[in-house]
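for the recovery benchmark. tokens below, seq after
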């Protein structure tokens, strides 16, 4: 074998080993990053279904209550709550303008309004839970399970409240009105603990104001 042939063969072997070594130690290219669960969650805008008409975007001035077209007695009762605009807005569809309002009948109407909104929230939570995009998100579905229980509990407590009003049972009335504060908080607490965005935040905001108003009317104004 000639000298030139030996040198050429040596160079070929050297280059082959060099490139083989580079391939072995090369780092694999990273795959696409996994999207965080919060970015995969259904859009929060879906939570506005049925609730947008009650949205309160500006701080409430107590003097503004005089500008709302509602019966004076209804305004007077709602003025004693923490959220007068929501109190009036949610009650108007449930009361008659020619009715002589008194706290018990207003509370009954408020409880019925709250039940209807909780049922809408329950339907929305179940809809998101069953959405194909939620199938791969166990944390989201677990939070939604808590919300489904939350809304169901509100509906159950509201029936007890109506029964307590009919029976003039002040103890049960106050107990269930207070229980609904915890019931409505349970949904958002689940999302807060999981540190993901809630698609039901607006639902809980509205319901939270409604159950707070119900508690104020029941505790402060109902006297059997």
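predicted aa per position
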């Amino acid at each position: 074998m000639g000298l030139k042939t030996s040198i050429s063969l040596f160079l070929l072997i050297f280059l082959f080993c060099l490139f083989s070594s580079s391939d072995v130690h090369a780092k694999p290219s990273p795959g696409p990053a996994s999207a965080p669960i919060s970015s995969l969650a259904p859009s929060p805008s879906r939570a506005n279904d049925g609730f947008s008409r009650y949205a309160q975007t500006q701080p409430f001035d107590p003097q503004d209550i005089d500008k709302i077209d509602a019966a004076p007695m209804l305004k007077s009762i709602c003025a004693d709550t923490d959220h007068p605009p929501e109190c009036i807005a949610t009650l108007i569809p449930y009361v008659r303008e020619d009715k002589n309002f008194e706290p018990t009948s207003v509370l009954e109407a408020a409880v019925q309004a709250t039940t209807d909104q909780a049922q809408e929230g329950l339907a929305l939570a179940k809809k998101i839970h069953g959405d194909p995009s939620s199938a791969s998100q166990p944390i989201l579905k677990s939070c939604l399970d808590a919300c489904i229980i939350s809304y169901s509990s509100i509906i159950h407590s509201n029936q007890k409240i109506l029964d307590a009003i009919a029976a003039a049972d002040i103890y049960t009335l106050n107990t269930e009105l207070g229980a609904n504060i915890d019931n409505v908080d349970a949904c958002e607490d689940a999302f807060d603990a999981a540190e993901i965005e809630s698609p039901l935040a607006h639902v809980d905001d509205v319901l939270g104001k409604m159950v707070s108003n119900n508690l104020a009317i029941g505790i402060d104004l109902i006297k059997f």
